[in-house]
Specification:
With 340 residues, the protein is an alpha+beta fold. Helices cover 29% and strands 31% of the residues.
């Protein structure tokens, strides 16, 4: 797909139609809806057999010539030959970000127009990694851009480039040293035209190693958190007690069985459940609604409820409060059920 190489090679993403045709070939028809005519006209045009092209001289609206600076030879050209067309990069990159499943509004972040923030990669709810796009073709500038992004993000990030060019070893070393990942749009996206893309495989699969390094999710018996799907809320969470020490958890398509230690509710001194776990069991027995009329109502629940809320936030990665005030007590925003 020649689009990605065109991003690297067309200066300022603006040029006369013949320039775009040179880099895009027959694929230009797909790109045309994303090209916007500029008010200014070209001062020179490409010309066969020359490197710098020919200078444009406009005598009248319908009398335009391309002049050879060495021979002064003048050849007539049309006005449409000197119209400059600029790529609508915002629309193009929004389409790429959407196909990759990123969140946020795509925007330029500096280094001219060559460095963009495409959005956040959210492998699980509560874990976000910025994805930047660097489009320069110069290896030195690319490494410079990566260093700028590293200083900007101060955390692991994903760097995307249009293609993977020779001489990229310094970039790989730089990103490896910062525990960040590198992808190319050429290898991850199929272009449908007019800013519409389709991912060849989910970004989470492409970045499986990166996710495994930076997102530690819980499995039965170990792990700090549940693999909550991106965008999930407490309304998607269902906790069912299987016995006094184990629960079944489901959030959308993700599910598993976990003990109180997996949820961070273990007493380190004697390996027994904490009072937060016992309060979670109480919420289950009360079908998620605990009031002063409940059988196990206690003034101690106020502090314990806050500890429980903190543990649940940490385990599921959902920032909102898992409880709401209701009828003189608290109601869980998630479904919680006792063992049979």
């Amino acid at each position: 797909m020649r689009l990605w190489r065109a991003l690297e090679n067309v200066y300022g993403w603006a040029g006369v139609r013949s320039v775009w045709r040179e880099h895009m070939g027959d694929e230009l028809d797909f790109l045309q809806p994303l090209l916007r005519p500029m008010e200014e006209l070209a001062m020179s045009v490409p010309w066969p057999g020359t490197i710098e092209g020919r200078r444009v001289v406009m005598h009248e609206e319908d009398d335009i010539v391309a002049v050879d600076e060495e021979t002064s030879e003048a050849s007539p050209i049309r006005r449409e030959d000197i119209v400059l067309w600029r790529l609508d990069a915002d629309t193009l990159f929004r389409g790429a970000a959407s196909a990759l499943g990123l969140t946020g509004e795509t925007a330029s972040v500096g280094m001219g127009t060559r460095l963009w923030w495409l959005g956040d990669f959210v492998p699980v709810e509560g874990e976000r990694f910025p994805v930047y796009l660097a489009t320069t073709r110069d290896a030195g500038e690319l490494v410079k851009n990566a260093g700028y992004v590293s200083a900007l993000s101060r955390r692991p990030f994903v760097l995307a480039t249009p293609s993977r060019r020779p001489g990229s070893e310094p970039l790989s070393r730089l990103l490896d040293g910062r525990s960040s990942a590198w992808i190319t749009l050429e290898e991850t996206l199929d272009w449908r035209g007019e800013g519409v893309f389709a991912a060849r495989q989910p970004l989470g699969e492409v970045l499986r190693g990166f996710v495994g390094e930076h997102v530690k999710v819980a499995t039965a018996g170990a792990g700090p958190r549940f693999p909550t799907p991106p965008g999930a809320t407490w309304a998607d969470v269902r906790i069912r007690f299987l016995d006094g020490h184990t629960v079944s958890v489901q959030v959308r398509e993700q599910s598993g069985r976990f003990g109180y230690a997996d949820l961070g509710m273990v007493n380190a001194k004697n390996n027994t459940p904490t009072v937060a776990w016992e309060l979670l069991r109480t919420f289950a027995e009360e079908r998620g609604h605990l009031t002063w009329a409940s059988r196990k109502a206690s003034a101690d629940h106020r502090k314990r409820k806050q500890v429980l809320a903190d543990r649940l936030r940490a385990f599921f990665g959902i920032e909102a409060d898992p409880f709401e005030v209701d009828g003189g007590g608290w109601r869980a925003r998630f479904a919680v059920e006792p063992d049979a």
